[in-house]
Design a protein that fits this description.
The complex is a heterotrimer of chains A (87), B (99) and C (206). With 87 residues, chain A is mostly beta strands. Helices cover 9% and strands 33% of the residues of chain A. Chain A has a single domain, classed as Roll (SH3 type barrels). In chain A, the strands form two sheets. In chain A, strands 2-3-4 form a three-stranded antiparallel beta sheet. In chain A, strands 1-5 form a two-stranded antiparallel sheet. Chain A is elongated, with a radius of gyration of 14 Å. Chain B has a domain of 56 residues: Cyclin A, domain 1 (Orthogonal Bundle), CATH 1.10.472.20. In chain B, helix 1 packs parallel to helix 3 and helix 2 crosses helix 3. Chain C is of the alpha/beta class and 206 residues long. Chain C folds into two domains: 32 residues; 145 residues, Nitrile Hydratase, Chain A (Alpha-Beta Complex), CATH 3.90.330.10. Chain C starts with 15 loop residues before the first helix and ends in a 12-residue tail after the last helix. The chains are: A mainly beta (87), B mainly alpha (99), C alpha/beta (206). Chains in contact: A-B, A-C, B-C. Chains A and B meet through helix 1 of A and helix 2 of B.
């Protein structure tokens, strides 16, 4: 899966450093109202699936100091993910 | 950059490991936020959004950002007005012998 | 109200935001939006939460494998077993250090932290420097805290970007076989629960 390399105004919980990066879905954390809408007083419905996504650090950073097995996990909502290879 | 708060991976210097004693007003900032949340008068997501939108985000300390965001939301949600907060804050500063 | 608030000292270098939050407090109480009792409740709630709670959970997990499994699969319930009320956390997840992986917790976007268990995060955890560097150079950050994982151990950084809050279950140090839970808990520091260091067995003359 890849984090959508998109710009979106307002409250966003997908950090910039992950945009456009590829990782693996580690697990499903649950379904929650969309915080990006709740932030503006909206209901955030329908609920969105939240995934724990794992990334290889050497894919995220140039010159990363550490072995290839070093990982980073982030909790990312479904609407920020797309299958790899799209677009 | 999607926001001034979105700083993962940006460069940074050594981490200052000193710890300041939590001040009473900071405890209060925590408590008011928590109490407002408990009453359904504000959500964590609203509060985060309000913090992220502060024009002077980088210049404020952690609890200063919290306080500014709480103020913004109270006004936005029509619970208090800017004028009454300003007036009351001024009164309190005078009582404390400040400016 | 013309008297000085009961627990305020006058200090010239106080932030201007102190008066603002006091003003909000006064107005919210005046308008019956909140009561002083409710506010005081929340203050006490936060003040009563400390890293010792996390240390208790770890010490129990080290001595009771079934509890450890429960801690890893449903941390809020496990906490409740030890009398720790973590219900205010949306989700609490404990990640285990093993001979293969060392975990580090950060919140790059704000400063999410398992407050309902551990209380307030340290100032450094909320700093721009930690938030920006922990994801990109976790090993350098840990070195600043005087810690280096053993050769061959991989580092896993957890960025708390949603509502799950993370706490590390460190590995039990060597040479602690004869320690009881209380002694074990004393080895577990807040920094080890965040992942910038690891518990050390006290050196003992045999």
């Amino acid at each position: 899966m890849r984090v959508r390399p998109a710009e979106k105004p307002g409250h966003v919980r997908a950090p910039d450093y992950l945009k456009g990066r590829s990782g693996w879905i580690s697990c499903v954390l649950g379904h929650f109202p969309n915080p990006e809408d709740v932030a503006y007083g909206l209901s955030g419905m329908p609920e969105k699936t939240l995934y724990r996504v794992s990334f290889r650090q050497s894919n995220l950073w140039d010159g990363y100091e550490g072995p290839d097995g070093d990982r980073l996990y982030a909790d990312v909502y479904e609407h920020w993910l797309e299958p790899e290879g799209e677009r | 950059m999607s926001g001034v708060h979105d700083i993962g991976g940006s460069s940074g210097g050594p981490i200052d490991q000193s710890q300041h004693d939590v001040e009473d007003w900071e405890r209060l900032a925590d408590a008011i936020n928590s109490a407002l949340g408990g009453k359904g008068l504000q959500t964590t997501d609203q509060h985060r959004r309000a913090i992220e939108s502060l024009p002077n985000y980088r210049d404020l300390g952690y609890y200063e950002r919290w306080t500014a965001a709480t103020e913004k939301l109270l006004i936005e949600n029509g619970i208090l007005t800017q004028a009454e907060i300003d007036e009351k804050a001024g009164e309190i500063e005078r009582r404390w012998g400040g400016s | 109200m013309s008297e000085v608030h009961p627990h305020e000292e006058v200090r010239p270098e106080r932030s201007p935001y102190a008066a603002r939050i006091r003003a909000m407090e006064a107005l919210l109480v005046e308008k019956s939006v909140l009561t002083e009792a409710e506010i005081q409740d929340r203050i006490e709630y936060m003040d009563s939460r400390t890293p010792a709670n996390g240390a208790k959970l770890v010490a129990r997990a080290w001595t009771d494998p079934d509890f450890k499994e429960r801690l890893l699969s449903d941390a809020k319930s496990a906490a409740r077993e030890l009398g720790l009320d973590a219900t205010h956390e949306a989700e609490l997840i404990v990640v285990e250090n093993t001979p293969v992986v060392h975990n580090l917790i950060v919140c790059t976007l704000c400063s999410c932290y398992p407050r309902a268990v551990l209380g307030r995060p340290p100032d450094w955890y909320k700093s721009f420097e930690y938030r920006s560097r922990a994801v990109r150079e976790p090993r350098a950050v840990m070195r600043e805290f005087g810690f280096e994982p053993e050769e061959g151990i991989e580092v896993a950084v957890h960025d708390s970007t949603a509502d799950a809050r993370y706490m590390v279950l460190p590995m039990r140090p060597e040479g602690t076989k004869n320690m009881d839970e209380e002694e074990l808990a004393a080895l577990v520091t807040r920094d080890a629960l965040i992942g910038v260091s690891a518990p050390q067995a006290p050196s003992r003359a045999s």
